[in-house]
Amino acid sequence: MSARLLPLLPPNGPAAEHYFVPEAKRLSGNPRQSLWPHYTNQDATFFSGMWESEPGKWRIEYTEEEYCEILSGRSVITDAAGVAVAVNAGDRFVIPKGFVGSWEVIETTRKVYVIHEAKA
Question: What is the dihedral of CA 36, 97, 103, 89, to 10 degrees?
């Protein structure tokens, strides 16, 4: 079988999974989040899809490498040293493995994500 190209999120793509940030990570609010997983490779180390969150703030600690493209909304990502970066529709960035801080959704935010997480 040969590999084929996969559009990121085809019109008949996956149904959304909905969840809330675990209480232990929440800093403010109780944002409902939605995930549209699109692709996972055979050894489960590479993922892509779309994510959305309602306003709120929570702690983050990355064990993976993540490329993000913000499609809509406004968020602020703050590192452990207190350096804050606002991200808005059209912004593209990478969050490296080991990043610790917080993610605050100011205005409901939707992003495309591509994640690589090496096996331990």
Answer: -60
pTM of the model as a whole: 0.90
Tell me if 4 is assigned to some domain. no
Summarize pLDDT for 56-77 with one digit per residue, the tens.
Answer: 999 999 999 999 999 999 999 9
For residues 43, 100, 32 and 76, what is the CA-based torsion angle, rounded to 10 degrees? -120
DSSP letter, residue 41: -
Please enumerate in sequence order all residues whose Cβ is within 8 A of that of 91, keeping only pairs 6 or more positions apart, or say none.
Answer: 68, 69, 70
- Containing structural domain, residue 88: 17-116
- Count CA atoms within 13 Å of residue 17 on its CB side: 9
Smallest Cα–Cα separation from 112: which of 49, 45, 18? 49
